[in-house]
Amino acid sequence: MTESHELTGNRRSRSLTVSIEGLALALTRPIPVAILCAAALLKAYLVFSILPTRVKDWDFDLYYVSALALRENQNPYTLDYKALATRLGIAVVPDWRSHDTPTLLVVFEPLTKLPMKEAFWIWTSLNIVGLAVTLFLLLRPSRTGLVPRWD
Questions:
Q1: Per-residue b/e over 40-50, b at no fewer than 16 CB within 10 Å?
Q2: What are all long-range contacts of 111-116, with beta carbons under 8 Å and residues at least 24 apart?
Q3: pTM
Q4: Distance (Å, rounded) from C-alpha 65 to C-alpha 84?
Q5: Rounded to the nearest 10 degrees, how much is the dihedral formed by the CA atoms of 99, 117, 125, 73?
Q6: Which residues pair with 17 in a beta bridge?
Q7: Strand partners, 5
Q8: SS3 for the chain, per residue?
Q9: How many CB atoms are closer than 10 A to CB 55?
Q10: Spatial separation of the C-alpha atoms in residues 37 and 2, rounded to whole Å
């Protein structure tokens, strides 16, 4: 990308050139890498510090109750969840219906054999592993062509 910016007044006109290669070079130097890593670690700490309070939030409880209905041979798409949610201590909106795909419910169903808290931590761990593998596959230098230069 090339952009030209005209500056008025006492300033001279100049041309700014921004490229992906230049951005990658700037972001692979030690100081920006350290800042980005520190920001990522801070964000991870903040997210992990509130995770124990989110077992019955962030949609996990809805996945769990839908998959549990399926495991108990009930139709998760037509079931009135009030009794099942009350049994699990989950607050659901009146007349709530599951809109999760059958594949998600079938994959999630084995987790319903565990208590909700244990299932939450297994589900969260699987998501973290999946994210880590995806980032590794997408960002490895052989795939991106970007080799860090520590000049």
A1: eeeeeeeeeee
A2: 111/64, 111/67, 112/64, 112/67, 112/68, 112/71, 113/71, 116/55, 116/56, 116/61, 116/64, 116/88
A3: 0.62
A4: 7
A5: -40
A6: 2
A7: 14
A8: CEEEECCCCCCCCEEEECCHHHHHHHHCCHHHHHHHHHHHHHHHHHHHHHHHHHCCCCCHHHHHHHHHHHHCCCCCCCCCCHHHHHHHCCCCCCCCCCCCCHHHHHHHHHHHHCCHHHHHHHHHHHHHHHHHHHHHHHHCHHHHCCCCCCC
A9: 20
A10: 29
Q: How far apart are CA 147 and CA 98, in angstroms?
A: 46
At 97-130, the pLDDT tens digits run: 777 788 888 888 898 899 988 888 898 889 889 9
